[in-house]
C-alpha cells in the first residue's frame, strides 16, 4: 500500500536522527516526537503503545498483500519499514491519500489512492508508527505481544471515524 508512497516521492527527507523517532510526549495513548509527528513507544516492561499494535493489524489487513509481511517488501512492491523513518510524515500521508503513478523506461510504480478507504484513513497514523517501529527494529517480525490498553479517546476517535 505505502510502496510508492515511500519509494516514489520526489522529496525524501532523511531524518534518521532520534528527534524523528523518540517520543517527546504523549497524549491520550498517542505518542509524538518533539515536532508533533506520531511515533511509537515501548515502555520499560516491553509493552508497545496501542497505535503500533493497531498499525500491525491494519498493515496486515490492507498493505501486506503488496508490500509483504512486516513491511519487508515483496516481488511486487518495495519494503516500507525503512521508508517510514526516511520519508517525511506529510509526504507519506500525501502518497497514501492521493496515490502516485510513475511509469517510464526505468520504473513502473503505481500506488493506488486510499483517501476514500476508511480502513486505511482511520488508521493512517497507526500504520505509520508501526512501520516506523519496524524500520528501527524496535518491533520484531510477527504479531506484537504485550501492548498498552486502548485509551478511551482512541476508541472514541475510531468510532467517530468508522461511523
What would your notes on this structure say?
The chain is an alpha+beta fold. It has a single domain (3-162), classed as Cytochrome Bc1 Complex, Chain D, domain 2 (Orthogonal Bundle), CATH 1.10.760. 39% of the residues lie in helices and 10% in strands. It has eight helices and five strands. A three-stranded antiparallel beta sheet has the order 1-2-3. Strand 2 and strand 3 form a beta hairpin. Helix 2 packs across helix 7. The longest helix is centred in the middle third of the chain and has 13 residues, at 50-62. Residues 145-163 have a biased composition (Basic and acidic residues). Residues 54-129 form the Cytochrome c domain. It comes from Hoeflea ulvae.
The gist of it:
With 163 residues, the protein is an alpha+beta fold. It has eight helices and five strands, in the order αβββααααββααα. The protein has a single domain, classed as Cytochrome Bc1 Complex, Chain D, domain 2.
Amino acid at each position: 500500500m505505502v510502496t510508492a508512497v515511500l519509494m516514489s516521492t520526489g522529496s525524501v527527507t532523511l531524518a534518521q536522527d532520534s528527534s524523528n523517532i523518540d517520543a517527546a510526549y504523549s497524549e491520550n495513548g498517542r505518542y509524538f516526537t518533539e515536532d508533533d509527528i506520531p511515533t511509537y513507544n515501548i515502555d520499560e516492561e516491553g509493552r508497545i503503545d496501542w497505535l503500533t499494535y493497531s498499525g500491525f493489524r491494519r498493515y496486515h489487513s490492507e498493505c501486506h498483500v503488496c508490500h509483504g509481511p512486516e513491511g519487508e517488501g515483496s516481488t511486487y512492491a518495495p519494503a516500507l519499514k525503512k521508508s517510514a523513518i526516511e520519508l517525511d510524515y506529510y509526504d507519506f500521508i500525501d502518497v497514501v491519500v492521493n496515490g502516485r503513478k510513475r511509469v517510464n523506461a526505468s520504473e513502473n510504480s503505481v500506488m493506488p489512492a486510499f483517501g476514500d478507504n476508511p480502513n486505511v484513513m482511520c488508521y493512517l497514523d497507526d500504520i505509520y508508527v508501526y512501520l516506523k517501529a519496524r524500520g528501527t527494529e524496535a518491533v520484531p517480525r510477527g504479531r506484537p505481544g504485550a501492548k498498552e490498553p486502548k485509551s478511551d479517546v482512541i476508541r472514541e476517535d475510531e468510532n467517530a471515524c468508522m461511523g
